[in-house]
Amino acid sequence: MQAKYKEMPCVGGYLDGSIDKVGSGNAKKFAGEDPKWGNKPLSVFQTSDSRNGSFVDLGKVATWVKWSEPTAEALRQACLARDSRISQLPPQLPSVFISRLVVTNSKFLGPVDLWLNRQYNAVIGGRGTGKSTILDYIRWALCDQPASVEDDEVANPSVRQRRLIEATLVPQDAHIDVYFTINEIPHVVRRYAKTGEVLLKVGDGEFTKTRESDIRSLLPIHAYSQKQLSSVSVRVDELLRFVTAPIRQELDTLDRRNGEVAGKLRENYASLQRARDLDAGLMRSVLAEQSLAEQAANLRASLTGLSDDDRDLLNNKPAVDRIRAAASAWELDTNQLLDSGTALVAEIGDALQGMQGLDEGPEVLVKASEELRSRTVRIVSDLGVAVEAALRLASDAVTETGELAKHRRAVEEQLSAFDASYEEVKSKSTAHEVRLKELGQIEAQRKSTHELVEEQRRARKTLGDPQAIYTKLRAELVGLYSDRSSLLTGQCDALTQLSDGLLCATMQKGTGISEVEGKFRAATSGSGVRGARIESLFSALGDETDPVATWETALAELETLVLMGEDGELTSEVTPTLTRLGLPLADQDKVRRKITPDGWLDIALTPIADEPVFEYQTKEAEYIPFSSASPGQQATALVRILLAQGGMPLLIDQPEEDLDSEVFDVVERIWQAKRGRQLIFASHNANLVVNGDAELVIACSYRTAGDQSAGKIKLEGAIDVPAMRKEITHVIEGGEKAFRLRKDKYGF
């Protein structure tokens, strides 16, 4: 039986019941792992053949087979690609995939309406037939890789993409529609060639204008042009994309929160500066008022020829002024509270309107939520009624006939009587005309100064505690920096694991100092601080064990310098961290004379980012900088990572041109990869297309034989379609004759 099995031409068979019951010995034979049986793998179809009239077992055990047409040849092809096309368990399929490409017209390809498979799609064809064009159209419509200022196709593949659009679509006034699905929700992106305008349609909705960045955030495809993978190491941003692409949405969420907190900090800092100015102004005004009060008291004491009663009246002037000011403040506070009460009543009304009942969901939960709503409405309504009642009473009290107005008039009458008596006493001291005039001026100044003090106190009170808010927001911002770093660190670890250790990615804390240094240089430009000194400062910062924590301390000291002003005493005790990092006091003095609070805030809101460092493993536990590895080594490591990652569609134009000789290793990884992400490759390599077992092959050809100025999509289908197998043989293998000649030369 063993000998016969070795010679059997069959590639598959069926089994009654579950494959789990075959035992480990038979399982090794089926897997081709038993040399006694020729190491010949056999695909197995488990079945639930029903052997009774009730058919109770029918459908309990099933096998999933992937084919394009229900033919015997399709079954044979499935058996030859059993790892990819046959499954005894429900197959895994990508949840995010591009389903269709529509180009209204193209000068090169003509109109295109191409449906894609949600797993592995291979685009084949001779050079200049349109393989790369199809991938570039998809990438351009999905706003992949925004254009850079670099006008170099190698350093910036989007340059070639832009030229392609201008040459092939703009003259036709064309637009591209890309249909894609995210978790069963259909989307369509439409992009116009002439204007670049982007529209998005979600589900059954209408097309709405959107931004390129929104499309990239929604569907951040991972795409590479010819030779781009093997040149990734020369572009830090491209290598960084390997770390950020799988976690793009999480990073976007963190960046959005970062922007929100930074915006709040900027707004709060304006309040903080206003509070600081008010505190300083209030302190000056209080001191001025105290000085004026003492001056007035001395002048009153110097007046002679007055009776004891007159002297007592003059001495009561400060107390009377305080009563006058207090009565005025009480009136202002009362009016403000009445306004606040009116606003509160309106707010309560708005809240009650928003407390609508919910009638969807489990009946028990709906009932419980309705009970909660009704009780909430009752409490809030009672609050509104109480506030309205209190407002009516208070409003009545402050009217001209109200209780407060009556008492206020009584106080005003007493104040007027005192003022008249005070002026009468002052007029008795005619011998001190000059002093009386000076006293009148000082009392007028004191009155206006006191009014300024009250105004400043009220303004300061409305600001609350901006310092506490700033401290909280700053801590939140630094926490977001830490969260981002942790997220990237985890992805670096995952990247290293996915490459099987070929690529080692590690995060280094505080290495992204250049942007902060640039902000510092801009803020201190013209201060006289030498550029080498600034470079030395940030170099020392980068050498710190925790650069981010050190920078937070240095920022606080820098703000102290800014707020100190030019006349403040500057010592190393004030700025120990800046001094330790190598910025001498003389340069600190130059800095504080140049940086404004707004300039300091720009520096403070620029994060010191943690950046990944990439290495290539030459042998176990030995690494070299990733940029020092050969292009083939780099590309192989990166392709391993790309095929091990799930999620967004992966588009690569001719990956075989980047890889080293281990192409079949990539093929085996393709079998696993297409379960978790859609693959769209343009390729000349038979291993990638045929052995990679593409679900859909798209064959491109010249529109006119021998004329490479225009291409077309000649054929679409799977490998089990005879016409497609013939086209693959012709395009990739060089024809059947060439294929057989190679086979004979190899001696297979």
Q: Topology of this structure?
A:
Elements: H1 2-7, E1 12-16, H2 23-30, E2 43-47, E3 64-65, H3 72-80, H4 82-85, E4 86-87, E5 96-103, E6 112-115, E7 120-125, H5 131-141, H6 158-168, E8 175-182, E9 185-192, E10 198-202, E11 208-210, H7 212-218, E12 222-224, H8 236-244, H9 248-302, H10 308-315, H11 317-354, H12 363-398, H13 403-428, H14 433-463, H15 466-498, E13 503-512, H16 514-523, H17 531-542, H18 547-564, H19 576-580, H20 585-594, H21 597-604, E14 609-619, E15 622-625, H22 631-644, E16 650-653, H23 663-673, E17 679-682, H24 686-691, E18 696-704, E19 707-717, H25 722-731, H26 736-746
Helix pairs in contact: 5-6, 9-14, 9-15, 11-12, 11-13, 16-17, 16-21, 18-20, 18-21, 22-23
Structural write-up:
Helix 5 crosses helix 6, helix 9 (248-302) runs antiparallel to helix 15 and helix 16 (514-523) runs antiparallel to helix 21 (597-604). Mean pLDDT is 86; it is low at 147-151. This protein starts with a helix and ends with a helix. The longest helix is centred in the middle third of the chain and has 55 residues, at 248-302. Helix content is 54%, strand content 15%. A 6-stranded antiparallel beta sheet has the order 6-5-8-9-10-11. A 6-stranded mixed beta sheet has the order 12-16-17-7-18-19, with helices on both faces. With 748 residues, the chain is an alpha/beta fold. A hairpin with a 5-residue loop joins strand 10 and strand 11 (208-210). It is elongated, with a radius of gyration of 40 Å. The protein folds into 4 domains: 2-87, no CATH class; 96-221 and 648-746, Rossmann fold (3-Layer(aba) Sandwich), CATH 3.40.50.300; 263-468, no CATH class; 481-614, no CATH class. It has 26 helices and 19 strands.
